């Protein structure tokens, strides 16, 4: 177990078979913070006060004030909460859902969270904050440091804010490695989360990650199980090199678009509370060469989707793709 000291906390962290470097933790006033965001590089910002008005949130307060609608809660038989797209299930007949989607009231969720037994089902609430929340939550939400975050959005030419996802996880929950097609200011409110990131660079890190095909319900998710990597199937995972950090209450992690991320809820209060600020990519503008790693990933996705659409049969795709490259764009066999 590796030790990471963060805000005087001492966590025993699981060791994985790849090296990692620390993501810099900087002040909001450090010019390097803005430089990193502008360059699309992750950074932890420790004093932004972005969600200061929500730092008092706990399960009791949320239960009283969040409203009586239904909330999206995932249930998993193990610690992994691997996202999947319901809309892509029909074309993948053998697909086994990695977790179950429940719609629960907040008290139903809290009850499940509090009565969960070690080794049994786990739950993870993942719900966009919307108009259904009560007045006090609205006031807390309006008290977020919108001027800073909106200034960042403008300066860095992000597109519109799409959602603020509220995440309430049990300690030990893991969101396996995946990338999102949005910029994210990830804010931590309660408890601690460990993030392990990988660069989207096609030459170095993207080839070490093995995303599911774009038509698969687990599109954008890595197929490699970090706890038990299958190096026969995924040999380049041996070359993976990550970046990591632990975020605690009040911290922001700027999580740039297309960066792979694996997230663990660490033990502290027994649960973690976080809120994302997700922004669409901005307009592309003039193309400048060389293309960025992000633009290349996006291009790969578009080409893959086009081939799927044109062939109209996922089973034909592997051979078609191989015929395109084998012996022409691959090394000759030794
Ligand atoms: C998590 O906090 O568990 C996941 C957040 C994300 O994937 O963006
Ligand atoms: Fe994500």
Summarize the model shown.
A hairpin with a 2-residue loop joins strand 1 and strand 2 (9-13). It is built from seven helices and 17 strands. It is an alpha+beta fold and 334 residues long.
Descriptive terms for the model:
Jelly Rolls; 17 strands; ten-stranded mixed sheet; five-stranded mixed sheet; binds fe (iii) ion; globular; alpha+beta; single chain; binds succinic acid; 2 domains
Domain count: the total is 2
Mean pLDDT equals 93
Task: Name the CATH superfamily assignment of the largest domain.
Answer: Jelly Rolls
Mind telling me the C-alpha Rg? 21 Å
How would a crystallographer describe the biggest sheet? 10 strands, mixed
CATH topology of the largest domain: Jelly Rolls
Distance between the termini: 40 Å
Please work out how many helical segments DSSP would assign. Answer: 7
Q: What is the CATH C level class of the largest domain, in words?
A: Mainly Beta
Global geometry? globular
What share of residues are in beta strands?
Answer: 25-35%
Element pattern in H and E: EEEEHEHEEHEHHEEEEEEEEEHH
Roughly how much helix do the residues carry, as a percent range? 10-25%
Overall SS class: alpha+beta
